[in-house]
Design brief:
The complex is a heterodimer of chains A (about 575) and B (about 425). Chain A has helices spanning about 1-15, 40-50, 60-70, 85-105, 120-135, 150-160, 170-185, 220-230, 245-250, 260-280, 290-300, 325-330, 330-340, 350-370, 380-390, 470-475, 520-525, 525-530, and strands at about 25-30, 55-60, 110-115, 135-145, 200-205, 210-215, 240, 285, 305, 370-375, 405-410, 415-420, 440, 490, 500, 505-510, 515, 540-545, 545-550, 560-565, 575-580. By secondary structure, chain A is of the alpha/beta class. Chain B is α/β, with parallel strands linked by helices and about 425 residues long. The radius of gyration of chain B is 24 Å and the shape is globular. Classes of the chains: A alpha/beta (about 575), B alpha/beta (about 425). Chain B: GO terms for molecular function: 6-phosphofructo-2-kinase activity; ATP binding; fructose-2,6-bisphosphate 2-phosphatase activity.
């Protein structure tokens, strides 16, 4: 048993992804006049590299300038004969380079994207020698564009919202920005194919119509080039949805390859109606190889493509088990998963990290495409969503992707707009909140007047005074939400005073009547399905422990026995999650 | 991947690596499952002319020569049309110099008439050493020069190149801005990519940007004999037997004796390859995608047990071993798809030792030796044998080095008689 824990721990410690990435850090240096898409490319590239597991950070020199020169007056700041301004700008660039150095040496960064105009050979030479001195590789990305429409569109989309122009009217801002560009144009020296032949760079012409690539040095630069050559700025939307509710979903079982439940089928039809209503031109539909996504897509009545890479995460030995069964039969695995859900790999299965690796070609193709509807699975959708919304690895496995909800992603400016569409077909909730951080619930069964051993989730109650009720303290304690989120369960309808013993002390609760009736042991172990529908969805709580004790009037109460769950002393976060509403 | 077929057209003076690129690209595309064929116009010319006399044939004022060459190009285009429209081809690589705008215009019109997409691949190189090396490697062995001695052949070939040089119109950034192309300059130092239209062109560009011609060797071998091997069971994740460990030691000695500079070592994430690599005492990298084919429900079973418990599956597998997918497992076809990043990285790297598994090694070998999907699952990859692959001319030289440590034989030959199930049965069982 413990051998498996050790192995699992070491798996967590080492990066399991094939890592042919460079040993020396890489600086990606943007080059180009203002409004050529440098920051757009920088942000997108940073997002992509972080998603595939390469720690990357963006350094925007404009930000440094805004911090140094609090208020932006006008384009005169950028005139080449403005000595004072030149000094400030040089200082900002140096400060940014210094931060790049700190990022690589102290924060274990792998790639830094240096986002500035870098339009003169002199500036680029400074960066090159800086990098050479420190042992960093340099890769230049130059964006060249002379199409006035594209430039005007850029300016509208991103510059007007910039802090520099926050109090200006649009025409003023446009004119000022155009003058700003002129300041740079006079001294702009594009990367020269002859003089700069020893440099590694990619030149992007006219938003990707043409590319010139010189001296790609290593794997990461090759991947960057491939990525840059696949992205585009044509307006479009990506629709992400899970399959309709499946038979195994209803049984609370994970994985497998079951078909749709009747409600799932209803969802498929609703999805078809929704898609038609969106009036999307040339929509591509992608599914996985699993029945439930295929059946969902079938209802749309349009051609669709099956991708094996979109299959749900492989739960290995845990396939088709319920979370309760996993906790019972494989408690160590269950605990390990909660410790690091992103890197944890099911025995003979996969981790979220593996999933990201296999979804990379899907992301690349999504970048190339225009309007796409992806019908997939919970873990897969979380990975895709994390890419588009730039969520880090520790948030990814806890993103909310409920059944029967379509997420419409529309790229705008530097990010992505998300619109959720719940298609009004009920479904079970398959979301498990991050343990120890949700609103907590104690479910217990107690005999009248019996004090139970206290069990709680992590970081919950401390410093209670004798007279307070538990629930008062819950309201006061900012770590957890107050009383509405505590659901009491018992098998005794007549139990009036419920006691919760926490940390050895006894407290009364304010709620008198239990909300969930548990009569038999199987009901208790199937706790999730017992939560009434009207108090489920969107809120979460943890079931900490369930006790059973016999109550006989006029006889001493029996010591309650632990029927299901784990006390805090053994595993800190062995909890089950359900969902519950405010009320 | 594509709806309309794609015509890849090479452009460049002789000895610029056009045929090398064509063959490599064709091999790669076929391996990833895109039916591709190359059409080398020089071949057509050789069939037409039977005997090659001298470079005079290629002189621009040789009317007779020009007529024949035009005919050959037309014949080749005709075959391209047949391949792409009637024979289920997806991509055709039209390998010729295509150095004049006029010739390229003809091809573009041909493609437009037939509904093909066109993608040009131009190779530009002025480095005399590289050109010399090319000529020595591939031209001297060509049927054109079988009866010449080396100096004569080189001299004639250089004159041949001269014949093309005067009328050479390279792809122009302005004049040809509406065409889709990649210009490869100086064997991959620099690339100019214009108007990539679709997924397959994007993959082709990515591939071309990752290949190189630096001399190097790739060593492929399986893990040492494992516990489950000895029991005759497939799959699983067992450790090495004593004989397997012995192989690890012998492998270490062998690798040292090869004196390879900067060798990268890759393994899968399964115990048996990792234990084998450990014996080398050098840093190694673990790739999950190098894991053995997942036999699903048949994991850790013996072939006899599979035949007993899943006789239908067993028969189906013999029907079409390449496409057959174990229930809850994988097929060789799936394996090829997941090995594609390995191949791409192998192309980028120089000296590499890959310690993997039987099915995985078969897939990698099929890529390097251009084996078809039918042959792939039956390639011989015995335990305790290292295959050294050295790219040479248009292909790959293979040296098989048996390290003289006994092991069980895990190879199953293609069965002689196979019962006649239709493919439909296979699908309904999945």
């Amino acid at each position: 048993m413990s051998a498996r824990l050790d192995q699992a721990r070491s798996e967590l410690a080492h990066c399991s992804v094939s890592d042919a990435f460079c040993n020396s850090p890489t600086m990606i240096v943007m080059v180009g006049l203002p409004a050529r898409g440098k920051t757009y490319i920088s942000k997108k590239l940073t997002r992509y590299l972080n998603w595939i597991g390469v720690p990357t950070k963006m350094f925007n020199v404009g930000q440094y300038r805004r911090e140094a020169v609090k208020i932006y007056k006008n384009f005169e700041f950028f005139k080449t004969d403005n000595e004072e301004a030149m000094r400030i700008r040089k200082a900002c660039a140096s400060a940014a380079l210094k931060d790049v150095s700190a990022y690589f040496s102290k924060e274990q960064g792998q790639v830094a994207v240096f986002d500035a105009t870098n339009t003169t050979r002199e500036r680029r030479a400074v960066i090159n020698s800086f990098a050479k001195e420190k042992g960093y590789k340099v890769f230049f990305v130059e964006s060249i564009c002379d199409d006035p429409e594209i430039i005007a569109e850029n300016i509208k989309q991103v510059k007007f919202g910039s802090p520099d122009y926050v109090d200006r009217d649009i025409d003023d801002a446009m004119e000022d920005f155009v003058q700003r560009i002129e300041c740079y144009k006079a001294n702009y020296k594009s990367i020269d194919d002859e003089k700069d032949r020893k440099l590694s760079y990619i030149k992007i012409f006219d938003v990707g119509s043409r590319y010139l690539v010189n001296r790609v040095q290593d794997h990461i630069q090759s991947r960057i080039v491939y990525y840059l050559m696949n992205i585009h700025v044509t307006p479009r939307s990506i629709y992400l949805s899970r399959h309709g509710e499946s038979e195994l979903n209803l049984l609370g079982r994970i994985g497998g390859d079951s078909g749709l439940s009747p409600r799932g089928q209803k969802y498929a039809n609703a999805l078809a109606t929704f898609i038609k209503g969106q009036k999307i031109s040339d929509l591509k539909v992608w599914t996985s190889h699993m029945k439930r996504t295929i059946q969902t897509a079938e209802a749309l009545g349009v051609p669709y493509e099956q991708w094996k890479a979109l299959n749900e995460i492989d739960a290995g030995v845990c396939e088709e088990l319920t979370y309760e069964e996993i906790q019972e039969n494989l408690p160590e695995e269950f605990a390990l998963r909660d410790q690091d859900k992103y890197r944890y790999r099911y025995p003979k299965g996969e981790s979220y990290e593996d999933l990201v690796h296999r979804l990379e070609p899907v992301i690349m193709e999504l970048e190339r495409q225009e309007n796409v509807l992806v019908v997939c699975h919970q873990a897969v959708m979380r990975c895709l969503l994390a890419y588009f919304l730039d969520k880090p690895a520790d948030e990814l496995p806890y993103l909310r992707c409920p059944l029967h909800t379509v997420l419409k992603l529309t790229p705008i400016a530097y990010g992505c707009k998300v619109e959720p569409f719940f298609l009004n077909i009920e479904a079970v909730n398959t979301h498990r909140e991050r343990p120890g951080q949700s609103n907590w619930l104690m479910i217990y069964y107690s005999t009248f007047g019996q004090i139970l051993k206290g069990y709680s989730g992590v970081n919950l109650i401390h410093g209670l005074t004798h007279r307070e009720t538990v629930l008062d303290s819950l309201s006061r304690d900012k770590v957890c939400r107050p009383l509405a989120n505590v659901v009491l369960a018992s098998s005794e309808t007549t139990a009036r005073q419920q006691y919760i013993a926490v940390n050895g002390s006894k407290y009364k609760t304010a709620i008198k009547k239990p909300q969930i009736m548990l009569r038999t042991a199987p009901q208790i172990s199937n706790i999730r399905n017992r939560v009434p529908a009207h108090i489920s969805r969107h809120q979460t709580f943890d079931i900490v422990a369930v006790f059973v004790g016999k109550y006989k009037r006029n006889s001493p109460p029996e010591k309650p026995s632990l029927l299901w769950g784990s006390p805090v002393s053994r595993l800190p976060s062995a909890v089950e999650s359900c969902s519950i509403d405010h009320h | 991947m594509t709806n309309c077929p794609t015509l890849i057209v090479t452009v460049g003076l002789p000895a610029r690596g056009k045929t090398y690129i064509s063959k490599k690209l064709t091999r790669y595309l076929n391996w990833i499952g895109v039916p591709t064929r190359e059409f080398n116009v020089g071949q057509y010319r050789r069939e037409c002319m039977k005997i090659y006399k001298s470079f005079e044939f290629f002189r621009p004022d040789n009317e007779e020569g020009l007529k024949i060459r035009r005919q050959c190009a037309s014949a080749a285009l005709n075959d391209v049309r047949q391949y792409l429209t009637e024979q289920g081809g997806q991509v055709a690589v039209f390998d010729a110099t295509n150095t004049t705008r006029e010739r390229r215009e003809t091809i573009i019109q041909f493609a437009e008439q037939n509904g093909f997409k066109v993608f040009f691949v131009e190779s530009v190189c002025e480095d005399p050493d590289v050109i010399q090396e090319n000529i020595v490697q591939v031209k001297l062995g060509s049927p054109d020069y079988t009866n010449c001695n080396t100096e004569e052949a080189v001299e004639d070939f250089m004159k041949r190149i001269k014949c093309y040089e005067n009328s050479y119109e390279t792809l122009d950034e302005v004049l040809d801005r509406d065409l889709s192309y990649i210009k490869i300059m100086d064997v991959g130092q620099r690339y100019l990519v214009n108007r990539v239209l679709d997924h397959i062109q994007s993959r082709i560009v990515y591939y071309l940007m990752n290949i190189h011609i630096t001399p190097r060797s790739i060593y492929l071998c399986r893990h040492g004999e494992s516990e489950l091997n000895v029991k005759g069971r497939i799959g699983g994740d067992s450790g090495l037997t004593p004989r397997g460990k012995e192989f690890g030691k012998k492998l270490s000695q062998f690798i040292k004796s090869q004196g390879i500079s900067d060798l990268k070592v890759w393994t899968s994430q399964m115990k048996r390859t990792i234990q084998t690599a450990e014996a080398l005492s050098v840093p190694y990298e673990q790739w999950k995608v190098l894991n053995e084919i997942d036999a699903g429900v048949c994991e850790e079973m013996m072939y006899e047990e599979i035949q007993d418990n899943y006789p239908l599956e067993f028969a189906l597998r013999d029907q079409d071993k390449y496409r057959y997918r174990y229930p809850k497992g994988e097929s060789y076809e799936d394996l090829v798809q997941r090995l594609e990043p390995v191949i791409m990285e192998l192309e980028r790297q120089e000296n590499v030792l890959v310690i993997c598994h039987q099915a995985v090694m078969r897939c990698l070998l099929a890529y390097f030796l251009d084996k078809t999907a039918e042959e792939l699952p039956y390639l011989k990859c015995p335990l305790h044998t290292v295959l050294k692959l050295t790219p040479v001319a248009y292909g790959c030289k293979v040296e098989s080095i048996c390290l003289n440590v006994d092991a069980v034989n895990t190879h199953r030959e293609r069965p002689e008689t196979v019962s006649d199930f239709s493919k439909k049965n296979e699908k309904s069982l999945q």
